[in-house]
Design a protein that fits this description.
heterodimer, A: Helix Hairpins, elongated, B: 506 residues, 19 helices
Chain lengths: 119, 506
């Protein structure tokens, strides 16, 4: 029975797992580009989480259909919210990459432990 | 008129956003106009905030659905007394610091970034005001990101190696923080199906016993997220680098305002959306008090060992954030009121201290705390303001910091945690240990032997000179210092505002 619940909530597990993975990558990887990739994994995990929250079992796309009076629609709101989230993620990635380029010009490397040695 | 005032908070945010997007275009044509335009916009918002405060003070609460959509569907703006006070503080401080930045930005930044700097400056102001007035948690998240990214831009604008490195560190950690916040918001949406704080509270009230673990998880995610953003003690790692390497006008904004608005958002979510019952039943309260006490003590100790003035001030911010969280954790009327008052007082103190540090760097180029001997004679007005702010930081009566510390002490008596008074006093003494040496050196240090008259047997009397900094830098420092003294002698008006909100929250 537990296995069944696990299977039913499988997307949640994937989301939580990749969130933890992304956070771990940001905090532990020395390479700055990998850190940015970690941020992206983390954010994608959150997007996945929201989209599952909006899902309804046997739901149909949320476009009003007069021929089906008692249809169940999926919840479109979380997906719409994630459009904003994607834009934010994009801008953060762009900004972080720009800063990394600038640091590369200063240090000649993108591995953060090397910064300490160079100071 | 009332109709207009109800729309005013929304109009403020929109007009600041519009101006900030116009600035980079204007900068291509005339770079000299950027700073005055920024001052004009933030000044106008400051004037508007008086109308809002006047309206709110008559017992009304502004509730405005953006573009005509009623609350559960649309974004709602709520302005209660504390929020109106925060709008006044945010726009007023930004206005004054902007006037300061006329001269300091020319001195510290390259000319080419001026337009972008002021665009980020206004964007940051718009994000902060939007965050405090919004009553919709997803909208809050959007404004958190706007504030966060533009704050990083304010740090990175200096373009030096340290500033760029600090900005990247700030950006990555702030992104982790906002990821946690977004996850928390997702959990809240999952439990209640609403994004409006008022409706969340209504939905959560009957079902909160069914989801104890989900609510625990949500609050933990929000504490970690907003804690990273507001530099709550073990999560403060980005703050000292970012605040000390930024240009001085940015440091003032970041340290005085940006870290505080997240606390306002935290108070709103914790006390309105979750409600007092959850606050008292879970162990969130004990956790906040414990971490706040550690912040107050350890932050001060870290500050004590720094020898660069701006780094010392930045670590001092970590300690002062602890006071504000302590007020929240106490959860008694006096405690919460003192915490909210400390947001205000600390904004004035820290802005004043950072502006003084910038002014000293502007005139003499000195950054280290051991180079300040005789500074009180070279820059009497600046060091006078510095002394006022430092006395207030320590909590000497007649200055603003005393009132909030006294309130915190009363709050801990109300909460039956009288040991906390000892911690407050100890932390005040620790503050004294790292501010008083600077002041003592500035006024009472003996001259270097080379400067004294040889053979005269006694030192030549030192003479006061007028500060050699422009009036546009001097006036903001004086205004902040006067504000601290005003809050220390007449805290009644402000406490009146705060108590109205605290009465609703508790």
């Amino acid at each position: 029975m537990n296995l069944q619940i696990m299977l039913l909530n499988f997307p949640y597990l994937v989301s939580i797992f990749s969130f933890c993975m992304g956070t771990l990558i940001v905090l532990t990887q020395p390479n700055l580009i990998k850190k940015v990739i970690g941020v992206n994994i983390m954010q994608s995990a959150i997007f996945l989480f929201y989209i599952i929250v909006g899902d309804v079992q046997e739901g149909i796309p949320p476009i009003y259909d007069p021929t089906l009076p008692d249809a169940i629609y999926v919840n479109p709101l979380p997906s719409c919210l994630m459009l904003t989230g994607i834009v934010v993620g994009f801008s953060i990635t762009a900004f972080a990459l720009a800063l990394i380029v600038k640091l590369y010009l200063y240090y000649g490397t993108i591995s953060s432990p090397n910064f300490m040695k160079m100071k | 008129m009332d109709e207009f005032v109800q729309r005013l908070p929304f109009l403020c945010v929109i007009s600041i956003l519009t101006a900030s997007f116009c600035l980079p275009v204007l900068a291509r044509w005339k770079k000299e106009f950027c700073a005055p335009l920024t001052a004009l916009v933030s000044g106008l918002v400051f004037v508007a905030s008086f109308f809002i405060a006047h309206y709110v003070m008559r017992g009304n609460i502004i509730r405005y659905g953006v573009s005509g959509w009623a609350p559960p569907w649309g974004i709602e703006i709520v302005v209660d007394p504390v929020t109106s006070l925060m709008i006044m503080l945010l726009s007023g401080s930004c206005f004054i610091i902007c006037i300061y930045s006329f001269a300091s930005v020319k001195h510290e930044l390259e000319r080419i970034v001026t337009g972008w700097y002021y665009a980020a400056y206004l964007l940051c102001l718009a994000g902060m005001i939007g965050l405090v007035i919004s009553n919709d948690i997803f909208n809050m998240y959007v404004f958190i990101e706007v504030t966060g990214i533009s704050a990083v831009a304010l740090v990175a604008s200096k373009g030096t190696r340290q500033a760029t490195e600090a900005a990247l560190k700030y950006l990555l950690l702030a992104t982790i923080g906002s990821g946690f916040i977004l996850f928390g918001i997702g959990f809240i949406y999952m439990i209640t199906g609403n994004l409006n704080i008022t409706f969340i509270a209504m939905e959560l009230d009957p079902v909160k016993d069914n989801y104890p673990i989900a609510i625990w998880t949500t609050i933990s995610f929000l504490i970690v997220g907003l804690g990273v953003k507001s530099a709550f003690f073990p999560l403060h790692l980005w703050l000292p680098d970012a605040h000390s390497s930024a240009p001085s006008s940015s440091s003032a904004i970041l340290s005085a305002l940006v870290v505080k608005v997240y606390i306002i958002a935290f108070i709103k979510i914790l006390f309105i959306a979750f409600g007092l019952e959850i606050f008292h039943e879970t162990f969130i309260r004990q956790l906040i008090i414990l971490l706040a006490v550690m912040a107050m003590l350890v932050g001060s100790m870290f500050a004590f060992v720094q020898i660069e003035l701006k780094r010392r001030l930045a670590y001092s911010t970590v300690a002062q954030i602890g006071y504000i969280y302590l007020g929240i954790g106490l959860g008694t009327p006096w405690g919460l009121a003192a915490g909210l008052l400390h947001i205000l007082v600390h904004a004035l103190m820290k802005a004043c201290l950072f502006l003084c540090a910038g002014a000293i760097y502007y005139q003499t180029g000195r950054k280290m705390v051991n180079e300040f001997s005789g500074m009180g004679y070279k820059m009497p007005i600046t060091m006078g303001a510095f002394t006022v702010a430092a006395f207030s930081m320590v909590g000497i009566p007649l200055f603003g910091g005393f009132i909030s510390k006294y309130g915190l002490a009363l709050g801990s008596l109300e909460a039956n945690l009288s040991t906390l008074i000892l911690v407050i006093i100890l932390s005040g003494l620790l503050n004294a240990t790292y501010y008083f040496p600077i002041i003592g050196q500035a006024y009472f240090a003996l001259d270097n032997p080379s400067e004294t008259h040889a053979g005269s047997g006694h030192h030549a009397p030192k003479k006061f000179q007028r500060d050699q900094i422009p009036l546009s830098m001097l006036a903001p420092i004086i205004i902040f210092a006067l504000g601290i003294i005003y809050l220390g002698i007449f805290p009644g008006t402000v406490l009146n505002f705060i108590n109205q909100t605290v009465a609703v929250l508790l």
